[in-house]
Amino acid sequence: MSMKENVDFIKQELTTEEKFLEGTIKVERFWKKYKLLIIGVAIIIVAAVGGINYKKSVDASNKIAANEAMNLFLKDNKDEKALNTLKELDKRLYEVALFIKASKNSEIATVNVPYLKELMTYNEAISKNDLNKLNELSMDNRFLLKEFAIFNKAMILTQDGKYEEAKSILKLIPETSQANQLSQLLMHHIEAKL
User: How do residues 153-176 score in pLDDT, each as one tens digit?
Assistant: First the structure.
């Protein structure tokens, strides 16, 4: 190597070391300036991850406890301790338990779970022969038992001797419906009466 190459090599080495030293100094200044902020953000992130994991753990244990309470309630629907546990841990399961208890006792329960609320309204309408409630339910496309509500409405009209109106209502039940066979039987009964 020539002297010029040696000098260039040394200059290049010094430049690299200067850049490294300069970068280190910048990092050190940045750390001094934002040290508290960086530590605070790190603490917040660690606390958030810990909190999320703790919440997941508590939710999982509550879910298991609520399911165990529901199983106890299903074995004995007079178990008030299980019912109270459900009330504390899972409001929806509590309302399902209230629905089951009311159904077994032939009572009407106030529940807010959408499908159960509609079923309670349906049971109440059938027990009271309430055509208006059955009409409301049969107009709701989301109601699971829509065709059965239509069928029950036609049954009540048939009992009241309103055969023509019952026939027109039975035509609303599609052929693909599970209630179609029942509607056909009722239709034959109505035609025999006419």
Answer: 998 988 888 889 989 998 988 888
Domains in the chain: boundaries: 113-194
Strand stretches in the chain, DSSP E: none
Q: Which fold has domain 113-194?
A: 1.25.40
Q: In this structure, what token pair is assigned to residue 177? A: 């419906």
C-alpha 189/C-alpha 173 separation (Å) is: 16
Match 């299980």 to its residue by tokens: 82
Nearest to 76 by CA among 111, 107, 108, 100: 100
Q: By the 8 A CB rule, do 84 and 57 touch?
A: no
- pTM value is 0.56
CA distance 180 to 191: 16
- The Cα–Cα gap between 160 and 19 comes to 98
Burial degree of 20 (CB within 10 A; 0-12, 13-18, 19+): exposed
Ramachandran area for residue 48 (φ above 0: left; ψ -120 to 50: alpha; else beta): alpha
Angle at which helices 114-128 and 131-139 cross, to 10°: 150
